[in-house]
């Protein structure tokens, strides 16, 4: 678990420098394992995130349109998005995935018992937001840095997001 905050791409690079990958959460068990680690200091007593989510190694393949993929370019085989997610809220370019722990009101009853629990789920988020992150390394692996990660399929995050935000504004100015 990181102590620092980084953008998604910088988190991928930071993990590689440590000989690891940004965590590829590929099962419900692993999702909960990370949640348990995150809960040790990253959650309040009601299970709400103190930090703005936690980056994992999943993002939208904006270059080739292959869908949600791991940071190494392979397709995801499992996900933990809630109903109605991913949503690319307001069309602002939420192409990277964070783990969150909020208790969604429409899925968990509002009882005193439920207030003490959190519901780990995936959320699409803006890639340049700075968040904590978790790296995954095989057991017994050295701390030898990995080669520079190939992020070509993610190279358009910033440009695409800016186009989605600026283009409608520019069109409005020129149409008036």
What descriptors fit this protein?
7 strands, two-stranded antiparallel ribbon, Mannose-Binding Protein A, Chain A, 176 residues, alpha+beta, disordered C terminus, five-stranded mixed sheet, single chain
Descriptive notes:
This protein is an alpha+beta fold. 27% of the residues lie in helices and 15% in strands. Strands 2, 3, 4, 5 and 6 form a five-stranded mixed sheet that branches. It is globular, with a radius of gyration of 17 Å. The termini are far apart. The C terminus is likely disordered. This is C-type lectin domain-containing protein. It holds the Pfam family Lectin_C. InterPro entries: C-type_lectin-like, C-type_lectin-like/link_sf, Ca-Dep_Lectins_ImmuneDev, CTDL_fold.
Instruction: Give helix and strand order, one letter per element, not per position.
Output: HEHEEEHEEEH
CATH architectural grouping: Roll
Q: Give the number of DSSP strands.
A: 7
- Unreliable stretches covering 5 or more consecutive residues: 104-117, 159-176
Domain C-type lectin: 1-136
Protein name: C-type lectin domain-containing protein
Pfam families: Lectin_C (PF00059)
Organism: Oikopleura dioica (Tunicate)
Summarize this entry quickly.
The chain has 4 helices and 7 strands. By secondary structure, the protein is of the alpha+beta class.
């Amino acid at each position: 678990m990181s102590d620092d905050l980084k953008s998604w791409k910088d988190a991928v690079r930071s993990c590689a420098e440590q000989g690891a990958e940004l965590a590829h959460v590929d099962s419900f068990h692993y999702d909960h394992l990370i949640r348990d680690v995150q809960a040790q200091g990253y959650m309040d007593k009601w299970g709400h995130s103190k930090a703005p989510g936690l980056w994992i190694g999943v993002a939208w393949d904006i270059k080739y349109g292959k869908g949600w993929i791991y940071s190494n370019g392979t397709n995801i085989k499992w996900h933990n998005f809630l109903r109605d997610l991913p949503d690319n809220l307001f069309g602002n370019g939420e192409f990277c995935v964070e783990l969150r722990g909020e208790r969604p009101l429409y899925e968990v009853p509002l009882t005193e018992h439920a207030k003490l629990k959190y519901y780990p789920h995936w959320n699409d988020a803006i890639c340049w937001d700075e968040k904590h992150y978790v790296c995954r390394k095989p057991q017994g692996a050295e701390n030898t840095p990995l080669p520079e990660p190939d992020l070509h399929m993610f190279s358009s995050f910033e440009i695409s997001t800016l186009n989605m935000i600026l283009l409608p504004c520019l069109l409005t100015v020129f149409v008036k």
